[in-house]
Amino acid sequence: MIRKAMLFCAGLGTRLGAVSKTIPKALVSIHQKTLLQRNIEYLQLYGIKEVLINVHHFPDKIIEVVNKHDGWGSKITISDERDSLLETGGGLKKACNYFNDEADFVLMNVDILTTLSLENMFHTHQAHQDALVTLAVTNRKSSRYFWMTNEENIIGWGNDQTGEQIINSHNQLKINKVAFSGVHIIRHQFLELLQKEPNKISITDVYKKLFGQVIIKGFDHSQTIVVDVGTPDKIRIAEQLFA
Question: What is the pTM of this model?
Answer without folding.
Answer: 0.96
